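Reposting from the mailing list since nobody answered there.

I have sequence plus structure tokens for a pair of proteins and want to know whether others read the tokens the same way I do. The first protein:
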Amino acid sequence: MTILASLDADLGDALSRLTSVLAVPVLIAAAAVLVLTGIELGRWVGELARRRRATGPLSVLTQTVLEDPLAATHLATGAPSAPAATTLERLGAAVAATDLDGVEYALDDFEHSVERRLDRTRMIVRAGPAIGLMGTLIPLAPGLRALGRGDVHLLANDLRIAFAATTVGLLSGTVAFGLTLARTRRWSEDLASMERATERLRATAAAAATLRAEADARALLEDTGAAVTR
């Protein structure tokens, strides 16, 4: 029992020293998460400002690009977001080259682009509270030791750090969660608008392909019939 008690004490001391070493990196990480949240919030404000300056609904812009692909670069400047602007330019290039696969690829790339942007705030949603929790628990160990020694001043300082880390983590996670929801809704609407605008083009292309296949089949039958007659 004495050996087990000694081993338990040694392991406890080792873990305590390890968490003490992590105190400063965790606080730096909490500050970094707060800064990243502020950056993402600033980007969101910029995105809102761009949407207010948009020259029209994205569905209308997309339809105009499909009708006049050479004006895609000019029309893209009035898009409600940077990913949408890039997609409009790619749609114009694909339509100008009569590359229907390029239309599909442009829409797929838009979806992948916005997913990558959403991953930034999704990471903060999960990392912010976790780092805040770590920043809360790590100062409690030295604070409790200080309480045992009767050092109330040191305990108060450790509790102040712990509560600050909790606040930063929860604030970052909450703001990032709201940004993720808002961006997801906006960009889902953008994707739906462009898909609806390109449906007619894809339907027309599918109908044309069907007509060509039927014409080729008729021509083949006629050639076969002529060969049999001869």
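The second protein, same order (residues first, tokens after):
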Amino acid sequence: MKTGNLFKILLLIIFATTFVACESEEKDGGWESMKWETNVSNINKNKIEVPNKGGVYVFKCTNYKSFWIYALSESGESLPISYEDKKIEREWYSIKIDDGSIMTVSILSNSSDDNRTLEIGIQAGDVFDSFLFEQNKN
């Protein structure tokens, strides 16, 4: 009888240790926010005022090895993209991702009579970020 109780206690200890050892301290969604190095001097909460003449903007993610574009919109209108797109070229801008963690956004001059906005949604695993570019009309 003692051997049976000892076996049950040992089995209970092994069972409890297994569940305690597998319990994670981190909660789902506990990913660190993306951190960026950039050549942009006039950025405010990921919003960039683009001069009428346009410009080239480089963003390097310093804490994730790779990211992808999950959303893109022009003047509030969503555009279809594939997360596999490493280069996107449109009429007045282009977006290129190099080495998985460097994004270059080139915006041409605005000779139109309309203000332009471009929003780029970025994803790395379960962490998301975005950049909003605003360019005034001519």
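Reply #1 (J.P.):
I read it the same way you do. The helical segments are 2-22.
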